[in-house]
Amino acid sequence: MKRINIDSTRLWHTIMEMAKIGATPKGGVKRLALTETDKAARDLFCFWAESDGFEYEWDSVGNIFVTLQGKSKNLPPVLIGSHLDTQPTGGKFDGIYGVMAGYEVIKTIKEQGIKPSRPITVVNWTNEEGVRFTPAMAGSGVFSGVYTEEEIYNSTDNNGMTFKNELEKIGYRGHRKSVDYEAEVYIEPHIEQGPILESENYKIGIVKGVQGQLSLDVSVTGFESHSGSTPMNMRKDALVSSSKMCLALNRMATEQFPGSVATVGKMIVHPGARNTVPGKTYFTIDIRHPRKDILFEMESKIKQHFQNIADETGTKVEIRKAWFTPPVIFNSICAETLRKSAEFLGYNFMEMVSGAGHDACMVNNKVPGCMVFVPCEKGISHNELENASPEDLATGANVLLYSVMDFAI
Ligand code: HGY
Ligand code: MN
Ligand code: MN
């Protein structure tokens, strides 16, 4: 077969066009799920699909599917995808690269006049980041049967707006039940979001699996009192108690559980007045580890430690599980196909496990699949400085192109 390539200039252009939607002054992107900026990115994706003559639709939780039809319309598609929603201080490439690389692949195949034997579909999953609505990976989770539509519809943001209403408001609540979609195989291209590929000079990461992720919500209740007239030994300071808990969590991850990571990413302090001792806090915990049993051991240690701290500080602590995604092992045949494509194209590659979570973790419950990583600058991600080179992005898209053709032609 004559060698074909994706159009790297066009791929870079589509990513930069998407990056204009929700662009931040520091060069990042803020596009939280189901906001007007998310709608604008969705509209642009559908406008491109319409202009380029692809079929497109969205399902009951707003996942958008863009399809290059095959000789047989009835065979389940080869599915490629990722997400267009971002972190509040997100970058141009996390998620967006996977959707645009998939789109560039179906454009290339169509331009080459190649008619695949089965459909090839590119998907934008709703609410992968889980910033505005929990849980994360909600759209892919409903598609895969991990979450029910009702669970996700009833999720609310900080202002009490429901996922369902916000989805309807932006016009992306489709009729077709997400869980009814089938696919033959799923491939998710993504930037690594870590430093390994770049530091070890590899162009391609064949992702064998993803570490497990446990998200907890913590509320600490003390007693509001006057910051000037309340003696230190009579205080029930919810923020001091929470700070001790944060430090205990950090020590747990750095000293007791090697290979784990733990983060308190968000904290709300009530009432948040300079001269009132805080009576209540709410904060989030995100812990990750390649082994499920270790995550559960960390969870029980957290409960013990936090209760001891609450007792010492005269406060009350409540801990609720927000979501749990077990460690994932991807499909070996799919990984082998990616490996063969990288070899055929002459790109050096390494096999790896992903530190970050992805929609592929959810999809893996229903459709065999794998991920292909490309390097990002200094491994920086979930940061407005996130960056990647047009060459590296094109390399990953070419590996995707040959892997997709292996499954679909
Ligand atoms: O949290 C994650 O790992 C993903 O980036 N949403
Ligand atoms: Mn992502
Ligand atoms: Mn992310």
UniProtKB/TrEMBL annotation:
Cross-referenced SUPFAM superfamilies, in alphabetical order?
A: Bacterial exopeptidase dimerisation domain, Zn-dependent exopeptidases
Q: Cofactor binding mode, per the note?
A: Binds 2 Zn(2+) ions per subunit.
| Keyword terms, alphabetized | Hydrolase, Metal-binding, Zinc
Q: Which residues bind Zn(2+) 1?
A: 83, 94, 190
Does the keyword Nucleus belong to this entry? no
Q: Does the keyword Zinc apply?
A: yes
Residue ranges constituting the Peptidase M20 dimerisation domain according to the UniProt record: 210-311
Cite the GO molecular-function annotations of the record.
Answer: hydrolase activity, acting on carbon-nitrogen (but not peptide) bonds, in linear amidines; metal ion binding
Instruction: Name the cofactor(s).
Output: Zn(2+)
Q: Can you tell me which residues bind Zn(2+) 2?
A: 94, 129, 382
Highest taxon above the source species: Bacteria
Q: Which Gene3D superfamilies match?
A: 3.30.70.360, Zn peptidases
* Family (UniProt): Belongs to the peptidase M20 family.
- NCBIfam families in the record: hydantase (TIGR01879), PRK09290.1-3 (NF006769), PRK09290.1-5 (NF006771)
Protein name per Swiss-Prot or TrEMBL: Zn-dependent hydrolase
Organism listed in the record:
Flexistipes sinusarabici
Upper lineage is: Bacteria, Pseudomonadati, Deferribacterota, Deferribacteres, Deferribacterales
